[in-house]
Amino acid sequence: MDYTVILQALWLILPAYVANASAMLVGGGTSVDFGKTWRDGRRILGDGKTWRGLFVGGFIGMTAGFGLAVAARYIAMSDFAFLNLSDFEGFPLMIPIIFSLCFGALIGDVVESFFKRRIGKNRGEDWFFFDQIDFIAGALFFSFLTSLILQASGAMSGNWFLESFFPWHILVLIIITPFVHLISNFLHKKMHSNNEKR
Predict the structure, then answer these.
(1) CA dihedral for 120, 122, 128, 129, sign (positive or negative)
(2) Which in 21, 22, 101, 125 has the greatest CB count within 10 A?
(3) What letters, b where the CB count within 10 A reaches 16 and e where it falls short, cover 36-50?
(4) Beta bridge mates, 37
(5) What is the C-alpha separation between 170 and 38, in angstroms, rounded?
(6) What residue spans define the domains of the chain?
(7) Taking a C-beta distance cutoff of 8 angstroms, is the pair 11, 85 a contact?
(8) What distance in Å separates the CA atoms of residue 131 and residue 75, rounded to the nearest whole number?
(9) How many CB atoms are closer than 10 A to CB 5?
(10) Span 16-56, pLDDT tens digits
């Protein structure tokens, strides 16, 4: 496995990374579960999952994805064309594809929060591996589903997901993402702690 595989994997998932990180940074306001509890007496999701984080984070991720799509076109015409970076099928198909990556990531995070509450873990409490991989699973699942729908409708001749995400790309993401997530969480908590001290 060479560095191009790692770069391709990160390029493909970067919109989901940005969406997930942005949701955490811009979140606040009304929670997705509207403060309601499940039949076990615990919150359905918790205050950490908000509508503002979901929508604003998702659209920030999409903006990053559109930027990557444009950049990929220029890279393909440069000396770095050998990197073979995805343009997410270009306009207009990049819209549903990048949407599925970003909002799929956030929905994956929401689903994980539901199960995290069910086993009695509180907001901010670590649930190792699941906390780190939930949004990747959501992004991969929804982008695969979207690719199937686009292919079945005739909008695409092939399947973008199967043509872009090879097993080694997914393996790279499963290995790298937990470390990226842990580092970003540490930095977020550090910044939050510093702001409280001011």
Answers:
(1) positive
(2) 101
(3) eeeeeebbbbbebbb
(4) 43
(5) 34
(6) 3-191
(7) yes
(8) 34
(9) 14
(10) 999 998 998 888 899 999 999 999 999 999 998 999 999 99
Pull the structure tokens for residue 185: 């969480």
Task: Supply 153's token pair.
Answer: 């409708």
Average pLDDT, the chain: 90
Verdict on whether the full-model pTM lies above 0.85 = yes
Give just the sign of the alpha carbon dihedral 18, 19, 23, 24.
Answer: negative
Looking up tokens 């999952």 gives 49
Element (H, E) at 141: helix 130-153
Q: How far is CA 27 from CA 8, 79, 103, 168, in A?
A: 29, 40, 15, 33
In the block, tokens 């990531």 appear at: 105
Q: What does the alpha-carbon distance between residue 97 and residue 142 come to, in Å, rounded to a whole number?
A: 9
And the tokens for 192?
């939050």
